[in-house]
Specification:
The structure holds three protein chains of three kinds. By secondary structure, chain A is α+β, with helices and mostly antiparallel strands. Helices cover 34% and strands 16% of the residues of chain A. The longest helix of chain A has 17 residues. In chain B, 31% of the residues lie in helices and 23% in strands. Chain C has three domains: 156 residues, Aldehyde Oxidoreductase, domain 4; 200 residues, Aldehyde oxidase/xanthine dehydrogenase, a/b hammerhead (Aldehyde Oxidoreductase, domain 3, Alpha-Beta Complex), CATH 3.90.1170.50; 253 residues, Aldehyde oxidase/xanthine dehydrogenase, molybdopterin binding domain (Aldehyde Oxidoreductase, domain 4, 2-Layer Sandwich), CATH 3.30.365. Chain C contains 22 helices and 28 strands. In chain C, strand 14, helix 10 and strand 15 form a beta-alpha-beta unit. In chain C, helix 10 runs parallel beside helix 11 and helix 11 packs parallel to helix 21. The chains are: A alpha+beta, B alpha+beta, C alpha+beta. Chains in contact: A-B, A-C, B-C. Chains A and C meet through helix 2, helix 3, helix 4 and helix 5 of A and helix 1 and helix 19 of C.
């Protein structure tokens, strides 16, 4: 019914070219066409945050964007956060603090936490909670997630 | 929850946007941040034939202050840009105060100033701030551009003065008087949720700290942001003090249009209107850090 | 090797092995699974709460390009079988079972009417819009009182909306109440809410027609039971049906039970000869996945004037929704059984009525029936304490069971179970620990001092509980030693995020004197063990863990026997020690797991047989944890906002396999319970339409809501019912959250005359209570 559109973008540092139907959600484009299944769908109406990715370095909901809108954009998904297959400081701290249980919300929260620490390397506990308030986690109760992000901030500062 | 099929256009100029809206009429919807529209599409509550993506129209984006001190915010300016803008902090402290209450950072990274104003959700913060700031909304249409005062722009539940084929292009906030104080507060179920009730106030005082002008705007309570005229009348000419505020705020529910929904009854909203009006006004007792007075 | 020797791995806070894949987005959840030729299904769901179906016209839908099929009840009639009862078989509920698709009647909004299968999800949803259903609306029944009138009956064959009704008791309740100096009766209500895991349900079904083998991915919780039912329904042997568990995004009781889609997806795959995937979307999830907790309880307490509880009796009206699901009557049955809680109450009685209503069917959600019962009872205890002029903590102290009173019989308070005993514990220890940690007397004084500087009223509330765990009847673990001595550990238990891959490896490591890294844990799928049961009722460590011990013991004995045969020695001359078989006399190593594995790889059949064994642990008596929750709140009487200043959950779980994981369960459960008390609420209108149909209106707690939560995991009294000495840790953190918070808020608002007997403590509800109290004071 609607014509497909050609898009060219960068995903996790690699160039991507595709033809997409306008209504294809960015989350589905990443998961189905690029097989980057780390970005999860938990609600498809912008509330749960499981689909959060970086679009030109800003954390956004991939379920509220159409792939066709990302022509020329730079996208980072959870798969792009770990350099060379080693866990980042943030990922290490999540593991150390038991900041994940089922793991479904984790990729989205890592993306937001990553963006937070880039913008604000020394967040307060309250700032961390506000930054992740747009993410639902049903397993952990959030306390260990906040601890992990603060620990990562401290570790990154110590290593800087 | 996948959206129904639609055609898509992403023009580069406002003129092209208006031409598309004119040509396709009701079946075309402008797409700005998408944070309100895309959930509607995913839930299949709407089925537009054409989405006109505004995000490539550079002339719709940006924050500037003109020679008269008017703060002009382009319609597709992201909430996050407004939130972090030094111009906004300087030229409209009320707007700056309201920004962190809007949803969550991920929504603010994409949602737009004009999108929120045009959507006119009764629980949204920006329409109330616009009303309290005596803002003007700049509207482009097929034939002309016009400006509409905020109090004429917000007409009811999700209803604005935007006519067929028209697009909100900018919001204009008049220069902030040196002796203006402001206050902002809301009650929501959780941080970042739509307000059950909220209040945005501006209070202008003279050298003797008497109130020369005030705007007390309630949001979340009725179908659209409302001025609490009885409260404003109670403050006019009076010395700005806790006692005056307390007395005036008791009238916040007078003539108030209050709605009931899943999360709050009309009575609860009326009760909150009084309490929150008092608390928002109490914020004006102390000048904000950025104030000269 | 004695399992209770000082153990180097059990008890350590090891980081999880499973985390690596989740942190890098490499987990495999059901929607991540792709199969060649995959089709996508969506479910057509009823838009009416109660209606006759005159017909379903799917012609236009079938004609859409990309649509492979649309199935209605007519298509499945020959094979269709109602979703069975797995638990909680209250007599009467068997008349209220649900077919996988509605036939001529729908009974709740969201009930499946048809299945659409297409090339992709987008097209399938387009087709859904073209399916026309001809409904004749009937009067909906939306609450238990309307249901009781039987004016509109859901199940004609039952002839009543009373799904089941029974009475249980212990002692002589009538006499106790007749002679008691003090009695108090109240009506309490708990609201409908649900587990809402972050991953919705999903399935992929694939039928190999040549091999006559069905594979179903997306299993969880009780795969073996489900396989048995599916095999029967499709006329297959169990070995022809394979249920596969992938990574699971949380469950809390609702995922993995049999639902209509578990029949429909295999049916479609068999019909179409192609794999079919169905992923529930969030709107569907809120309509279709089990709801829970909605019940009303008229509870009465009889006491002596010194506060000793003489009797407790109740009438429970439980809203079951439109059908009895696999959990049967577990929710109300457990609510009744847990009414007495951790207290010395000789006379207990409860009448339970399970009512059918035109709403989503009900199933178990973390701490099923307990959350409700603890709220009812603990609220009533506070009211009684106030009447008797006793401090609520002191009132509880006088009635809490003491260590030397255990095992304590609560009698037969559940009709389908034998008499139960609280097996072991020291309830006052947990109680006093909770009170001391939060400085209970200090909080009482703080509350009594009046509003704080911001005008808020402070309150402190307590909730005590017992919680059963380790449901039987058995569990199986299978160990297979591979090349190099690495061991694949297969468990019949399922995992939904609890970290079993790590905790089970810790148990196996201690059982065999190896490191946890020597093991790979495989969970949930029906191919892993022959007789598995799954994960529910906090049983994985108790049952699954104990089975691993058994398997480890068996493996050690087995390889010793093998090496003895090879060396023509008596097995008693050999010892198994840390992966090696050594001579008792001189300590010489004769073989290791790796050398035996090498022999097996070289073709030695005896070696091959020696390297695999199964351990089964059987136990039908449950083991009880216990504890106390305590909450400190501040309430703004002008806005009805409540801040939970501090919440502490103390629970004795006997022994923590991994304290990091146990603590994580407690904190997660506490926050889930606090959300359930203030935010989560499934609201229906008079027409039976679900008003809270998305996350915009069904509210889950976020990071900013309850930041001040703590948990103390005690390992005070080990269980004597399993060789590990463990009790289950998954649910205790939620069960008394409603109770403690409600008591705290009631305590804070007592000076205003606010009376709390119902949940949720939403802003609107508290505002109404405050308004009503103000009006009463004004009179």
């Amino acid at each position: 019914m609607s014509a497909t559109c050609r898009i060219r973008l960068t995903v996790n540092g690699l160039p991507v070219m595709a033809a997409v139907e306008p209504r294809l959600l960015l989350a589905d484009f990443l998961r189905e066409r690029l097989e980057l299944t780390g970005t999860h769908l938990g609600c498809e109406h912008g509330v749960c945050g499981a689909c959060t990715v970086l679009l030109d370095d800003a954390a956004v909901r991939a379920c509220l964007l159409f792939a066709v809108q990302t022509d020329g954009a730079n996208i980072t998904t959870v798969e792009g956060l770990a350099p060379d297959g080693r866990l980042s400081a943030l990922q290490e701290c999540f593991r150390e603090r038991h900041a994940l249980q089922c793991g479904f919300c984790t990729p989205g929260i890592l993306i937001t936490a990553h963006a937070l620490l880039v913008e604000n390397p020394t967040p307060t506990r309250a700032q961390v909670r506000h930054a992740i308030s747009g993410h639902l986690c049903r397993c952990t109760g959030y306390v260990p997630i906040v601890d992990a992000i603060l620990a990562a901030a401290a570790r990154l500062a110590a290593n800087a | 929850m996948k959206p129904p099929a639609f055609d898509y256009a992403a023009p580069d100029t406002l003129a092209e946007v208006l031409a598309l809206l004119a040509r396709h009429g009701d079946t075309a919807r402008p797409l700005a941040g998408g944070q309100s529209l895309v959930p509607v599409l995913n839930l299949r509550l709407a089925s537009p034939g054409l989405l006109v993506d505004l995000n490539r129209v550079t002339e719709l984006r940006g924050i500037r202050v003109d020679a008269t001190g008017t703060l002009i915010i382009g319609a597709t300016t992201r909430h996050r840009a407004v939130e972090l803008s030094p111009e906004v902090a300087r030229c409209n402290p009320l707007l700056a105060a309201a920004m962190p209450w809007i949803a969550h950072v991920q929504i603010r990274n994409r949602g737009t100033h004009g999108g929120s104003l045009a959507h006119a959700d009764p629980s949204a913060e920006l329409p109330a701030v616009a009303l309290a700031s005596d803002a003007e909304l700049e509207i482009a249409g097929p034939s002309a551009t016009r400006r509409v005062a905020a109090n004429a722009f917000f007409q009811g539940l999700f209803a604005t003065a935007l006519g067929a084929g028209e697009l909100l292009v900018a919001a204009r906030y008049p220069a902030w008087p040196a002796r203006r104080r402001c206050g902002f507060i809301e009650v929501a179920r959780r941080h970042g949720d739509y307000a059950i009730a909220g209040v945005a106030v501006t209070v202008d005082i003279d050298e003797s700290a008497s109130v020369t002008a005030t705007r007390v705007v309630l949001f979340g309570v009725g179908d659209a942001p409302q001025r609490a005229h009885a409260v404003e009348a109670g403050l006019a000419g009076a010395p700005l003090s806790a006692a005056t505020i307390h007395r005036a705020a008791t009238h916040a529910a007078d003539g108030l249009d209050a709605r009931s929904d899943l999360h709050a009854s009309a009575e609860y909203r009326r009760e909150l209107a009084v309490v929150l009006t008092r608390r928002a006004l109490e914020q004006t007792l102390a000048p904000r850090r950025a104030d000269a007075t | 090797m004695n399992a209770l020797d000082p153990a180097p791995w059990i008890g350590r806070a090891l980081q999880r092995t499973e985390d690596a894949r989740f942190l890098t987005g490499a987990g495999c959840f059901i929607d991540d699974l792709k199969r060649p030729g995959l089709l996508h299904a969506v479910v057509v769901r009823s838009q009416h709460a109660h209606a006759r179906i005159n017909g379903i016209d799917a012609a236009a839908a079938r004609a859409l390009p990309g649509v492979a099929a649309v199935y209605t009840f007519e298509d499945i009639r020959a094979l269709a079988s109602p979703i069975p009862l797995r638990l909680g078989p209250l007599p009467g509920l068997e008349r209220c079972l649900q077919q996988p698709l509605a036939d001529d009647r729908v009974r709740y909004v969201g009930e499946p009417l048809a299945l659409v299968v297409a090339d992709n999800r987008y097209t399938a949803e387009d087709a859904l819009d073209h399916v026309q259903v001809d409904y004749d609306a009937l009067d909906p029944v939306v609450d238990v009182h309307a249901a009781l009138t039987d004016r509109s009956i859901l199940h004609a064959t039952a002839g009543t909306n009373v799904g089941a009704r029974y009475t249980v008791g212990k002692g002589d309740v009538a006499a106790a109440f007749a002679t008691a100096a003090y009695r108090r009766r109240e009506v309490f209500r708990c609201h409908r809410h649900a587990a809402v895991p972050l991953e919705t349900r999903g399935l992929v079904a694939e039928w190999d027609a040549r091999a006559r083998h069905l594979k179903l991915w997306g299993a969880a919780k009780v795969a073996y039971f489900n396989r048995r039912w599916l095999a029967t329904v499709f006329g297959l042997a169990e070995r022809q049906v394979e249920l596969i568990e992938l990574d699971v995004g949380g469950s809390f009781g609702v995922r993995g039970e049999l639902y209509p889609e578990d029949f429909l997806l295999p049916f479609a795959a068999m019909q179409l000869g192609r794999p079919v995937k169905w992923i529930e979307d969030r709107r569907e999830h809120l309509l279709a996945t089990n709801h829970s907790r909605e019940m009303e309880c008229t509870l009465e307490i009889a006491c002596a004037l010194d506060g000793r509880i003489l009797g407790l009796r109740g009438e429970l009206l439980a809203d079951m929704g439109a059908y009895a699901r696999t959990n049967g009557g577990v929710v109300p049955a457990k609510a009744a059984q847990f009414l007495p809680g951790p207290y010395r109450i000789a006379n207990v009685g409860c009448q339970v009525t399970a009512l059918m209503t035109n709403k989503t069917p009900v199933g178990t959600y973390r701490g099923p029936g307990r959350y409700e019962a603890n709220f009812f009872r603990e609220r009533l205890l506070d009211l009684a304490a106030a009447d008797l002029g006793l401090d609520p903590a002191e009132f509880r102290r006088r009635n809490l069971l003491q260590r030397n009173e255990l095992p304590y019989s609560i009698g037969k308070l559940c009709p389908y179970e034998e008499a139960c005993h609280y097996d072991s514990g020291d309830y006052p220890v947990a109680f006093e620990r909770a009170l001391a940690t939060l400085d209970y007397p200090g909080l009482v004084a703080r509350a009594a001092a009046g509003p704080d500087a911001a005008g808020r009223l402070h309150g402190v509330g307590i909730g005590c509980f017992v919680e059963s765990s380790g449901a039987g009847p058995a569990e199986t673990a299978r160990l297979v030693v591979r090349e190099g001595g690495h061991i694949d550990l297969y468990t019949g238990c399922s995992t939904m995020g609890q970290g079993h891959e790590t905790a089970m490896a810790q148990i196996a490591a201690d059982a065999l004197g190896l490191s946890p890294g020597a093991f790979t844990v495989h969970h949930g799928s029906t191919t892993h063990v022959d007789y598995g049961h799954g994960t529910y009722h906090s049983r994985a460590m108790v049952m699954g863990g104990s089975a691993i011990l058994r398997a480890g013991e068996a493996l050690a004995a087995q390889i010793c026997a093998h090496v003895a045969r090879v060396h023509e020695m008596e097995p008693s001359m050999l010892n198994y020690h840390c992966g090696a078989v050594v001579r008792r006399d001189d300590g010489r190593t004769l073989a290791t797991l790796a050398t035996i594995a090498r022999d097996a790889a070289a073709g030695d059949a005896d070696a091959h047989r020696a390297l695999e064994c199964v351990g089964i642990f059987e136990q039908s008596t449950r083991t009880y944890t216990y504890g106390t929750h305590i909450a400190h709140v501040a309430v703004d009487p002008e806005t009805a906002q409540v801040e939970v200043l501090r919440f502490l959950a103390v629970e004795d779980i006997g022994r923590a396999i991994n304290p990091l994981l146990a603590h994580g369960q407690a904190i997660g459960a506490v926050v889930q319970g606090l959300g359930g008390t203030f935010l989560d609420e499934l609201v229906y209108d008079d027409a039976g339409q679900l008003l809270t149909g998305s996350f915009a209106d069904y509210l889950l707690p976020t990071a900013t809501d309850y930041p001040n939560v703590e948990a103390i995991t005690l390992e005070h009294v080990r269980s004597t019912l399993n060789p590990l000495g463990v009790k289950g840790a998954g649910e205790g953190g939620i069960v008394a959250t409603g109770a403690a918070v409600a008591n705290a808020v009631a305590h804070a608002l007592r000076p205003l005359g606010v009376h709390i007997t119902a949940l949720p403590l939403s802003l609107n509800n508290l505002a109404r209570l405050l308004r009503e109290a103000r009006a009463r004071r004004a009179v």
